[in-house]
Design a protein that fits this description.
The protein is mainly β. It contains no helices and eleven strands.
Length: about 130
C-alpha cells in the first residue's frame, strides 16, 4: 500500500528555515502529483504547495509564495518543502499528499484530488 512519511519538522524562531521531506513507497512515484497541506489548531486543513509528477510545474498558496519552495526527486521517491522566512502563522502540522496523475502533468491544489496522506510533521515557529 501507499506510504508517505514526513520528516524535518521542529521548533524554529521567526525568520528561520526548515526543510521538510516526504518519502513515498508503494507507488509509481513519477506518476503522482505531490502536495503539501497544513493544519493549525482549530482550523481547516489548507493547501500550501503542489508539484506536478515530472517536477516541471509548481503552484503555491499566496500566503507562502516567495518563501516556500516545493521540489521532488523522482529517483529517490521523495518530495521536499523548503521553508524560509518562517512566521508564527506558519505554525501547523504539515502533511504530504499524493495524487495519481497518469500522463497528466500539472499540480493539484484541492484536498479531494489527493488519495494518499502522510501522518504529518509538526512545525512550530516562535516569535
Amino acid at each position: 500500500q501507499v506510504q508517505l512519511v514526513e520528516s524535518g519538522g521542529g521548533l524554529v524562531q521567526a525568520g528561520g528555515s526548515l526543510r521538510l521531506s516526504c518519502a513515498a513507497s508503494g507507488l509509481s512515484f513519477s506518476r503522482y502529483a505531490m502536495g503539501w497541506f497544513r493544519q493549525a489548531p482549530g482550523k481547516e486543513r489548507e493547501f500550501v504547495a503542489a508539484i506536478s509528477r515530472s517536477g516541471g510545474k509548481t503552484y503555491y498558496a499566496d500566503s507562502v509564495k516567495g518563501r516556500f519552495t516545493i521540489s521532488r526527486d523522482n529517483a529517490k521517491n521523495t518530495v521536499y518543502l523548503q521553508m524560509n522566512s518562517l512566521k508564527p502563522e506558519d505554525t501547523a502540522v504539515y502533511y504530504c499528499a499524493a495524487s495519481y496523475s497518469g500522463s497528466y502533468d500539472y499540480p493539484r491544489t484541492r484536498r479531494y484530488e489527493y488519495d494518499s496522506w502522510g501522518q504529518g510533521t509538526q512545525v512550530t515557529v516562535s516569535s
